[in-house]
Prior knowledge:
Strand content: 35-45%
CATH superfamily of the largest domain: Immunoglobulins
Amino acid sequence: MSPERARTAPHRRAALFILMAGLFAELGCGKKGPPLPPLRRGPEHITALSVRQEGKAVVLTGLLPEKSQDGGPLAPLAEVRIFRLDRGGLSGVPGGNARSFQRAAMKQFTKESRRIASVSGEALARSRSGRRFTFVDTEPLAGSIPDAGKDLTYAMTAMDAEKRSSPLSSFAAIRIFPPPLPPGNLKAEISEKSIHLTWEPPPPQSQKEAPSYNVYRSVGEEPFPDRPRNDKPLSQPVFEETDFAFGRGYGYVVRSVLISGAASRESENSETLALNPVDVYAPSTPTGFAVSAEGSEMKLYWFPNGESDLAGYKVYRSESESEGFVEITSLAATETTYGDKGVQPGIRYFYCISAFDSANPPNESSRSEVRGDRLPPAGAPGGTKPKKS
């Protein structure tokens, strides 16, 4: 090797070392290309999970998530999975606050529970109302429920259309007992202002306490809601329904309720009572009716009716005080006067009025008292006006 080449070799090796060090430095910094978008995460967990006993079944309700776990928009939900552990003793909020969640309880539930249902497609659409999701576990136990009760624990997960699952919901625990028997012989008496419901208590059971009752109503083809019509369980077999509309179809059922501390359990439904209230109730007869000949017309006055479904008034006229009355006009409910210009001077006319409502067909009240008067004969001086009858 020539001396010149011997001198340049160390410099080449140093340059090569610097080049390799720079390359490794770039690789160490992770500069392999443009940054990748963050991975999207699945739905948030189902919240507000609650359970209640209805007959031998357990009804679960919860609020479906409205955003993804990373706070971004939520992909359409495709499935809800329901899990059950056939014992109690667990607590915690798996999807809520990981720091406070009891990991042992989650592991136990994951290991020992089993999926009892997967709700998707049309069944999912029917099971939800907005974010509210409802599921009925119709067979929580194989066979009869023991008198001492049976503890159960439930949880749910939601899966979006991209097959990404939410964390486990909070646990919902319940102890189910043999349910009370349902009431019988549900009946209704319909009046203008209310629907009076009565029923017969169920036969006596082994429980010492007498049952209370909850009343449920469906409208049209809708299912029975979760909340009863009564604010609190009824101690007597009677309920007065005042919030209803004539011409609408309703279905009523009653359930027996047994209350033990903060827990309660309901019977199965009584037989459904279908009702279609029809308005056959006429308005009251108008009062304060008076007639006066004024100028060239007969002026009629009356006090307004107060019915909420009042549609208007009918005016009747005759030249006889006792017969031959013919309807001459129909007026709106806001009217309390009318001027009849289709009259002849010197003839005594008699009038009465009635009120009618907005039912189909309308209900008409009885007619008011008859009142009459007449215009002065043609050519007569404008002196004394004939007295009113």
